[in-house]
Design a protein that fits this description.
Chains A, B: Pfam families: NUDIX, WHD_NrtR. Two copies of one chain form a homodimer. With about 230 residues, chain A is α+β, with helices and mostly antiparallel strands. In chain A, about 30% of the residues lie in helices and about 30% in strands. In chain A, the strands form two sheets. In chain A, strands 1, 2, 3, 4, 5, 6 and 7 form a seven-stranded mixed β-sheet that branches. In chain A, strands 8-10-9 form a three-stranded antiparallel β-sheet. In chain A, β9 (about 190-200) and β10 (about 205-210) form a beta hairpin. The longest helix of chain A is centred in the middle third of the chain and has 16 residues, at about 130-145. β1 (about 10-20) of chain A pairs antiparallel with β1 of chain B. Chain B binds a DNA duplex (27 and 27 nucleotides) through α5.
Chain lengths: ~230, ~230
DNA sequence: ACAAAAGTGTTGAGGATACACCCATGC
DNA sequence: GCATGGGTGTATCCTCAACACTTTTGT
């Protein structure tokens, strides 16, 4: 039995995270202004290096937790970027992750401390290395996910209105949706509970609040009903 | 400007390939019997280590070429597997790739030389490390691809019958399809050319041969027509 | 009374599915 | 002449898209 693969090359493995948020208007991503070389002063995704003692998911969690202050974020491995000279300092591969967080209840202080800032997708600055490419790929993945899994709720507060949910889907899919068709579809999925409460901030009439009901969702999925918006 | 990221850990990166083929009956995968430690004598995916001087795609191509003898294989990056102890010898991450090859025109000798063998998905032996998991993931990816991109043709000879194409899709999707509906759908896509020739091996009557027409396909895609079986 | 957003159903078209019989040929 | 797989069309269902008016309430 071997003890090691001595003759093989070892490489540095970075983990970079595309963090999506939603501010009731636009889909946004969280970027940081680098305060270290290379490319100091430019905008980039948050990232870090994989440690010998952790899995990739662990590393992505650690990095996300460090910046946003919380755990149990929806997170998915996205793709590897491995161009030889993608990092000018040294040969480095990067594993991109994408994450969804509720923009409202995350820690402002941490974000300030790291010079991080939310940018709407259209207004995001150009990023270092191949990070723009990563963001593009993440958006496409997010779209595919959004229409096949109920991940949208990860981006909303616990209680939300139908209008908010619709706006979120509109900004993810980058297209206008019909109000009635959207509501009919969502109601057809039977994964929300309508609350008695109304949100009065958005209109005179007020609009009912809803909650995502994970149990209902799981039951539906078990019964073979597929989520599809 | 930095010259290196001295303090960070480096890791071994393996590339493992799930190679799919189709023998007119079943969907198959190509496996090798390992003639080296660890797990010598057991079945595994083919793989190798990433070299400092190549991208992941390069590495996957090199490994595939080495075993099958040809280049320009349809190939896709699948996922990273990074459990700490997945390889008992040493901490190793693996990037899984899946590939499609035409089972008929590949090099028998190379395959013998490497003790490689085609297994139908159901009859495949248990594999080393986390390779079974990789295969499962590859099958799911293949299914999603097959209904949204015309990758099926990569697995068939240049000229094929409708029955062959249908059988291929049936084995990828693991369900029976209706003959007439399938033909109508495929013809509706307008991406095949019907040849004058018939294949006489499968029946008395003989069945017409078709060819995938990449130009037609590209034109249709440009025009916004989506492939969907 | 009016402005501003919320809420609510129906219809029509197109795509998907289900389904059965004749054809050509080698033996 | 018969057995074998090849080829073909239609009726129905259901999903998806298009579409406009009434309600509530704060000012």
């Amino acid at each position: 039995m071997l003890n090691n693969y001595n003759t093989e090359d070892k490489v540095l493995l970075a983990v970079d995270c595309i963090i999506f948020g939603f501010d009731q208007e636009d889909l946004k991503i969280l970027l940081i202004k680098r305060d270290f070389e290379p490319e100091k002063g430019k905008w980039s995704l948050i990232g870090g290096f994989l440690k010998m003692t952790e899995t990739l998911d662990d590393a992505a969690n650690r990095i996300l937790n460090h910046l946003t202050g919380f755990d149990k974020i929806y997170m998915e491995q996205l793709y590897n970027f491995s161009k030889i000279d993608r990092d000018p300092v040294e040969r480095t591969l990067s594993v991109a992750y994408f994450a969804l967080i509720n923009i409202e209840d995350h820690d402002e202080k941490l974000i300030e401390q790291y010079s991080a800032k939310w940018f709407s997708i259209e207004e995001a600055p150009s990023l270092i290395f191949d990070h723009n490419q990563m963001v593009q790929k993440a958006i496409l993945r997010l779209r595919r996910r959004a229409i096949s899994k109920p991940i949208g709720f990860e981006l909303l507060p616990e209680k939300f209105t139908m209008r908010q949910l619709q706006k979120l889907y509109e900004s993810i899919l980058d297209e206008k949706l019909d109000k009635r068709n959207f509501i009919n579809k969502v109601n057809g999925l039977d994964i929300l509970v309508k609350l008695e409460e109304k949100d009065m901030t958005s209109s005179r009439k007020g609009s009912y609040l809803y909650q995502f009901d994970k149990e209902k969702y799981d039951r539906n999925v078990e019964d073979g009903i597929t989520f599809k918006i």
